[in-house]
Amino acid sequence: MNDLHELFVHKLAQQYYVEQELVETLDEMARDTTNDRMSQGFADHRDETRTQIQRIEEVFAALDRPAEARECAILDGLEEDRRELEAEIEDDELLNMVYLNAGMMTERVEMTAYEGLTTIAEQLELGDDVKRPLESNYDEEQSAFRELETLATAKDMKSLWDRLTPS
Question: 8: pLDDT confidence band, cut at 50, 70 and 90?
């Protein structure tokens, strides 16, 4: 890789992989959490993620390149951590905290990825047909993160915090 354009395509392919993997992960977490509000949030974001995949495909098309996915070690590491904790935790409410934290960490990684892609696209002077879909995906990731933040302080989570925090 010797130029900024190839780096952009590489990072775009990694984000394509991330979004594809997250459809299944969000579906699993929506099914497995015992918190109804969190379950609905994960299901809603899973549906948004499918649209985000389509937007990335639009970006590849605007670049006149076939859509390709490249593994992303950051996501793979987050997934490995979540699965290890799932295997070790038997308390449903504590597992809900794992899902909440995993969701927040993933959203932050995704926001950072889209910020980086947008910055490179601007440096390359790529058109709105490239930048707009990336910005839309960023906005949705930011919104999903804010929803998770709100959930972390919600009443139904306060009982868990109270139960798990030593007095």
Answer: very high
pTM (two decimals):
0.91
Please say whether the beta carbons of 10 and 70 come within 8 A: yes
Cα-only R_g, the chain: 17
Does the domain made of 4-162 have the CATH classification 1.20.1260.10?
Answer: yes
Give the pLDDT confidence score for residue 69 in this predicted structure.
98
Task: For residue 20, give the H/E element and its range.
Answer: helix 4-32
Between CA 79 and CA 44 the distance in angstroms is 20
Q: How many CB atoms lie within 10 A of CB 129?
A: 12
The domain ranges of the chain are 4-162
User: Which pLDDT value is given to residue 153?
Assistant: 81
Per-residue model confidence (pLDDT) at position 161? 66
Choose among 101, 74, 77: nearest CA to 89: 101
Contacts of 73 (CB under 8 A, 6+ apart): none
